[in-house]
Write a structure and sequence with these properties.
The chain is mainly alpha-helical. It is about 40% helix and about 5% strand. It starts with a helix and ends in a 10-residue tail after the last strand.
């Protein structure tokens, strides 16, 4: 009798049912998915902020140059060396920032502003395209050791001069205001011609989307 009573008084150990375990697993999957989405959003915003900082630093170098020379650098069409295989706009519109950097090098104020740009973005032009090898919107550049600037997504930043001979670039990307050049990133999608996500050193009137 005593043994039977002892067995009856022993408490049952609680456990998870199959349904409860499935609910917990589903919640873990949902939370993991939300973490990935939020993480990507945070990283994406951080890259946009980095890009804006780079564009602002380049625009500040232009201000330094204008204060020193009283004008913007001249437009020299022959100085541009567009990469091969760059998309529908071809050689007529690509205007890399390497040309600008070559024109303004050596000024103390400009060098100071360029020093604020992370070294991972300020690299030789040929290195940009070596790192982008195989990327469909990048094109190919070889043997071009000029310093240039890439955005956080790896694409070369463009420099759009307000000279009238540069009108094809205005039609593609936007018209400069007050005779001031602008700098432009292709944005997160890496395509220069899709303007919705492109980032500019200042807001310009953009052409209608194709």
């Amino acid at each position: 009798m005593i043994a039977l009573e002892t067995n009856r008084s022993r408490p049952r150990r609680p456990g998870f049912s199959l349904i409860e375990m499935l609910i917990v697993m589903a919640l873990v999957v949902v939370l993991a998915g939300l973490t990935v989405v939020v993480g990507r959003s945070v990283i994406g915003k951080a890259k946009v902020d980095q890009c804006r900082q780079v564009l602002q630093a380049l625009d500040a170098t232009l201000t330094e140059y204008q204060a020193e020379k009283g004008a913007v650098p001249p437009f020299v069409r022959r100085a541009y060396k567009a990469p091969d295989g760059i998309g529908s706009y071809g050689l007529s519109t690509r205007r890399e920032v390497a040309v600008y950097l070559d024109q303004v090098k050596g000024y103390a104020g400009i060098d100071k502003q360029l020093g604020t740009i992370d070294s991972s973005f300020l690299v030789k032009r040929e290195q940009i395209y070596a790192d982008l090898a195989g990327y469909p919107y990048a094109g190919v550049v070889a043997d071009d050791p000029r310093p240039s600037v890439r955005d956080p997504w790896g694409m070369e930043i463009l420099y759009i001069h307000p000279h009238e001979d540069n009108e094809d670039a205005f039609r593609a990307f936007g018209t400069p205001l007050n005779e001031r050049p602008y700098f432009m990133s292709a944005g997160p999608d890496g395509e220069y011609e899709t303007l919705e996500d492109n980032l500019y050193s200042y807001e310009v009137p953009r052409p209608p989307s194709n």
